[in-house]
Design a protein that fits this description.
This protein has two domains: about 120 residues, 3-Layer(aba) Sandwich (Rossmann fold), CATH 3.40.50.1980; about 140 residues, Rossmann fold (3-Layer(aba) Sandwich). Strand 7 and strand 8 form a beta hairpin. It is of the alpha/beta class. The strands form three sheets. Strands 7, 8, 9, 10, 11 and 12 form a six-stranded mixed sheet that branches. A four-stranded parallel sheet has the order 2-1-5-6, sandwiched between helices.
Length: about 300
């Protein structure tokens, strides 16, 4: 089987279930695990590098509004690779090449590959995708073992949260963009709940949503977790620094109290794969001060 994965979470899942040797092409954003970087890159960004957060938002809105894709796709190279399966998504036009764009690229091919779209909206959906990819690639046992390990780690977090049952749950705002502010959605509110917090804006399964600073101030969170899509923890910290002088940012209680936490959005929050559990563990450490540990 020859697989092209055009979404980072798909690539991570394929390698995690032991099917990495089947992957013959990836997107420009597929950077984990390290081995994935050695595969041919089949996509690119249509955005100009070096833009500010506000400029990126304006460009994305214009592109999506016009129906244009934010990504380029190397259709010729895909034809040369002759994949049996292409893994893509249609959940978010901003996050990766869409299923519609992929289907247009493969339609002229003499042998059409199977197009598999991963579109989870919850942790259960993510785990179902892991099982699905395992079955698709003949690695059902590996996928099952991976899921069992992830569940053990979630149980440890649950025990940590239960040990803090007498304390109030922190009211949390997850920001997946800062200028303008966007609330993290889909699986993020569920991650916050698993880690012992309460999302002050979104409910589990809700899509991410553009906010006004008035809405952010009215929510008055105890904790702000900054997870800008496309950034690691250092990049998220740099984005926070760009907000430091803005009055609407300075007015927030969580900012004044020093309870603003940058996190690795790319690795543990934006991409719906196994590392979401790493993200839940990170949130539990933020909320409760001690990282959950598996007892020996």
């Amino acid at each position: 089987m020859r697989i092209v994965s055009l979404v980072p979470n798909g690539t991570e899942i394929l390698f995690a279930v032991g099917a990495g040797e089947l992957v013959v092409g990836v997107s420009h954003e597929c950077d984990f695990p390290e081995e994935a970087r050695a595969r041919p890159i089949l996509t690119g960004s249509a955005l100009t590098p070096g833009m500010t957060a506000a400029e990126v938002d304006a460009a994305v809105s214009a592109q999506v509004g016009s129906g244009a894709s934010l990504y380029t796709l190397d259709e010729g190279r895909i034809a040369e690779l002759a994949p049996d399966v292409i893994v893509t998504q249609q959940l978010c036009p901003v996050c990766a090449v869409s299923t519609e764009q992929v289907e247009g690229a493969v339609r002229p091919l003499p042998r059409c590959p199977e197009v598999v779209s991963l579109d989870p909206k919850s942790l259960a959906d993510v785990f179902a995708d892991v099982r699905r990819v395992g079955e698709l690639t003949g690695r059902a046992d590996r996928a099952g073992a991976l899921l069992e390990g992830l569940q053990v780690r979630l149980d440890v977090v649950r025990a940590t949260v239960a040990g803090n049952a007498g304390k109030p749950r922190p009211r949390v705002l997850a920001l997946e963009w800062l200028d303008p502010p966007f609330a993290g959605g889909h699986w993020v509110p569920e991650m916050i709940a698993h880690a012992g917090g309460e999302d002050v804006i979104a409910r589990p399964g809700d899509p991410s949503a553009r906010l006004t600073w008035e809405q952010v101030a009215a929510a008055d969170p105890d904790v702000i977790v900054v997870m800008p899509c496309g950034f690691d923890e250092a990049g998220a910290g740099a984005q926070i620094e760009t907000m430091a002088a803005r009055p609407e940012w300075q007015s927030l209680r969580a900012v004044r109290a020093g309870r603003v936490h940058p996190v690795d959005a790319n690795g543990c929050f934006s991409r719906p794969g196994p590392r979401l559990v790493d993200g839940i563990e990170r949130l539990a450490a933020i909320f409760h001060g001690e990282p959950p540990r598996i007892s020996s």
